[in-house]
Amino acid sequence: MMHEIPFWWYLLIARWQDIIEIIILSSGIYYFSLWLSYDKQKPLALSLYGYCFALIATQLMNLSTIYLLLVILCPLVFSVFILLHQETIQKNFIGLHAIQPVQKPTNDWIELAVRAALTAAGDNKTVCYLIEKKDDLSMLVNTSQLVDAPLSLSLLKLITTSNLYQQDKMIWINSHTKIKGYNTDWIKNSVDTWLTKDLQMQDQWVQDALFFSTKTDVLLVKCIPTTRTYTIIAGGKHKEHLSAQNTCIAIKQYLSSSHSLPGDFHAQFTKTTSSQKTLS
Description:
The protein is of the alpha+beta class. 49% of the residues lie in helices and 16% in strands. It has 2 domains: 20-95, no CATH class; 108-279, DNA integrity scanning protein, DisA, N-terminal domain (YojJ-like (1). The chain has a 7-stranded mixed beta sheet, sandwiched between helices. Strand 5 (219-224) and strand 6 (229-234) form a beta hairpin.
């Protein structure tokens, strides 16, 4: 009579080769699941864990037919899995390529950008800045007018007074405080499927900004000509009707912070503006 193999027998490590295999496989699964966990739209990592759990459970329960079927279909399942989420995974992959400035820029450019937007508002023109923090946005946006020049007040005025300038698009500023270009727009595919009904009532630029700010650490600043106030969006959060002074404070606070998770921006800004009111 054959004895049933106990459960703990599967956990025995008999050779040094077993240790190497366990380290390699565990590292591969860990980094792959870590990569998938960057997706905030759909639970990709949970799907991976569920499939691995099904493989382990069917093996331990001696469900050989189901286990063999799962093993055979594994390449097909993962191919379909990646195909269904290729757009989201691509954005997450791009967001992982952080860019580091050669030298830390001063904060003077923030006041210049805010002042230029307010000057344009006086001419009844809308200005929206797309500001990089660490994530490279080159694969997420289209820019019809490339500049790639250091930010200055004269350059911003030249752009906003140009006949080529389109108010419904953005001025792209990278982490080196260079103006990469203007008339910049998002590369959109399935943004609307993520938005809730409440967000769909917002203006289109707000919907787009809220979506892409949950995927990257981008900061968007827009000056509204009718009210001469600013709207800031970062980390899936947005604040409206800000003065020029509070806008500068909020931008500096966000860019100088090491955090880029959704919700951190709101907490930082609330703390900053509260202390500003106390001082005044």
